[in-house]
TrEMBL record:
Pfam family, one: TPP_enzyme_M
Domain Thiamine pyrophosphate enzyme central intervals: 218-351
Classification via Gene3D superfamilies: 3.40.50.970, TPP-binding domain
Cellular-component GO terms for this entry: acetolactate synthase complex
Protein name: 3D-(3,5/4)-trihydroxycyclohexane-1,2-dione acylhydrolase (Decyclizing)
Spans through the membrane: none
The family this protein is said to belong to: Belongs to the TPP enzyme family.
Gene behind the chain: iolD
Organism listed in the record: Halovulum marinum
Presence of keyword Ion transport: no
């Protein structure tokens, strides 16, 4: 009979998590973010206190943003490490559902441990319990089911023996990777069980590297051989695979130009001659021109989201073939693509060997040079008075960037502008654009800095996103996690305001000036950030912004630099059509005109 150790279920969970390691010996779950309530304070709270630094606990301000920080940590770690987040039942748990959706869309690992109702049902309905009149086993935590890659309800202490290994199997599986929810009944957290000592033996979690199927590989090789103008679209999977150098070597060996999605940007240095920049809606002219002519589009670790494909109008060659290298069969087969289901690095190595010394003819480099000249112009410091554009703000940060700079964002104007304009060093770009979740920015910046302490993290955030979720700025101050925040204040939701006007709508309810308010707000963002302990300043102009960016380096707390911007102009360069449905019936002539354009563009969509 094996030896056992008597522990509460919560104590067993944290002890088990504390001995799960990566191949280099680091903790795989590198700490637990926690806000305690009646659903987890007595059980998990006691257990986390007891485990101490073997599995450190971090206190945040909001369950959603704690989870955002954990997700950013995993993304910045290239999915090699992760964090856990625990909440009480009720609103604490449902606050995390948005973050779970974000992680699910972006294929990022996070372990969510919301407290749940009493398994024994004696005090039902307990405070904050959501009751289903027709289903006795439903709780609020069932909201996590569609946005979790693995969901389990721990309603007996021994459930941990199977649930915990399944959780980490999911999180470390490159094909299934995503959020895991272990809904932990609060009475079960405190119940004791005699666990086998062997359950707590340290375990190393390796990220497998699936090899390509020989028949799929041959089909892709033949398709490439037959192509005359192939183009590579590199996605986040190239980075998570650790295939950055392999991708560049493959492109250079066969002379195939490449472009990078939001998740893939920074895989290859922007200065590489074959790197044409960004594709699609937020794309540059050089990349989009190449994609329009391409007779074969080779996706590497991308799910071909609509921004990448210009809502399936960017790949305009009627003879084009779509090829998708992806570790997930679901993504590899999208839109009739010729699939190569495999790890990106392994697939590129095998495909490169199969192609041998095959090289495609060189392309005219003038398009790339012309594109960067155009971006130089829109990012240049203004030579006239007036509020700067977002592009000019990006230019100021770009001129102060170093090889250690990592720029990040999530929603609003800046994600599109940064994808189009930013010139990223390898590993210098972090964008949450799968879910494009407002409020990810400040928490995400903290998560990046925790994962990459040597990086110079610059967070771009608009006034709208800042107003939605800013409280983890206080957490970063308390934990002495420094990063730089560039807060662009255009007095509303400028990005969606432009989209509203661009689709023929009247300016309405996006900018404060066009909202139903009795007084226009005058929000002192500098005072607000300073009140949470950050170093906060107002930049007078672009020149002052550059100076403040440089001054921020070396502080041990976050620096917030506020600058007023012009809400009107867009990026000023690049771009492509995006499918945003326009009403078929409207009294507005502008809407009628926009609908005519919309019908013309949708006729060009190719979704096979």
């Amino acid at each position: 009979m094996s030896n056992t150790i008597r522990l509460t279920a919560a104590q067993a969970m944290v002890r088990w998590l504390s001995v799960q390691t990566t191949e280099d010996g680091a903790r795989y779950i590198d700490g637990v973010w926690a806000i305690f309530g009646h659903g987890n304070v007595a059980g998990l709270g006691e257990a986390l206190h007891g485990i101490g630094d073997a599995l450190p606990t971090w206190r945040g301000q909001n369950e959603q943003t704690m989870a955002h920080a954990a997700i950013a940590y995993a993304k910045a770690s290239k999915r090699r490490r992760a964090m856990a987040v625990t909440s009480s039942i009720g609103p604490g748990a449902t606050n995390m559902v948005t973050a779970a959706a974000l992680a699910h869309v972006n294929r990022l690992p996070v372990l969510l441990i919301p407290g749940d109702v009493f398994a024994n049902r004696r005090p039902d309905p307990v405070l904050q319990q959501v009751e289903d009149f027709d289903d006795g086993i439903v709780s609020a935590n069932d909201c996590f089911r569609p946005v979790s890659r693995y969901f389990d309800r721990i309603s007996r202490p021994e459930h941990l023996l199977t649930a915990l290994p399944r959780a980490l199997q999911t999180m470390t599986d490159p094909a299934k990777c995503g959020p895991v929810t272990l809904s932990f009944c609060q009475d079960v957290q405190a119940e004791a069980h005699d666990y086998p000592e062997s359950f707590f033996a340290p375990q190393v979690w390796k990220i497998r590297r699936p090899q390509p199927d020989s028949e799929e590989l041959e089909a892709v090789r033949a398709a490439l051989e037959a192509a005359e103008r192939p183009v590579i679209v590199a996605g986040g999977g190239a980075i998570y695979s650790g295939a950055e150098q392999t991708l560049l070597d493959f492109a250079q060996a066969h002379n195939i130009p490449l472009c990078e999605t939001q998740a893939g940007k920074g895989a290859v240095d922007w200065q590489a001659e074959l790197n044409l920049g960004s594709p699609g809606v937020t794309g540059g002219d050089a990349a989009n021109a190449a994609l329009a002519e391409a007779d074969l589009v080779l996706g590497v670790g991308t799910r071909f989201q609509d921004f990448t494909t210009g809502s399936w109008t960017a790949f305009a060659n009627p003879k084009r073939t779509l090829v998708s290298i992806n570790v997930t069969g679901y993504d590899a087969g999208k839109h009739g693509a010729l699939p190569l289901v495999a790890d990106a690095k392994a697939a590129l190595e095998r495909l490169g060997a199969a192609l041998g010394d095959r090289r495609w003819p060189g392309r005219d480099s003038a398009a790339r040079a012309t594109w960067y000249a155009a971006t130089d112009a829109v990012m240049a410091a203004p030579d006239t008075a007036g509020l700067p554009t977002d592009a000019q703000v990006i230019g100021a940060v770009q001129r102060q960037a170093t090889p250690r700079t990592v720029v990040m964002c999530a929603a609003g104007t800046m994600p599109g502008a940064l994808h189009t304009l930013w010139r990223s060093a390898p590993g210098g770009y972090h964008m949450e654009y799968g879910f494009s979740c407002m409020g990810y920015e400040l928490a995400g910046a903290m998560g990046i800095k925790l994962a990459r302490p040597d990086a110079d993290v610059v967070c771009f955030v608009g006034d709208g996103s800042y107003m939605m979720a800013n409280s983890e700025l206080a957490t970063a101050v308390m934990r002495r996690v420094p990063f730089t925040v560039v807060l662009t204040d255009n007095r509303g939701f400028g990005c969606i305001n432009r989209l509203q006007i661009g689709t023929g709508g009247a300016e309405f309810n996006n900018m404060y000036a066009s909202s139903n308010v009795k007084a226009q707000p005058e929000i002192d963002f500098v005072a607000h950030a300073a009140a949470m302990g950050a170093h906060a300043v107002k930049a007078a102009d672009i020149s002052d912004l550059e100076a403040q960016i440089e001054s921020a380096r070396g502080r041990d707390i976050p620096s917030v630099i506020v600058i007023d911007t012009d809400a009107g102009p867009g990026t000023g360069a690049g771009g492509h059509w995006w499918d945003v449905a326009v009403p078929q019936v409207s009294d507005r002539a502008q809407v009628q005109d926009a609908r005519e354009t919309y019908d013309q563009q949708t006729a060009l969509q190719r979704i096979d």
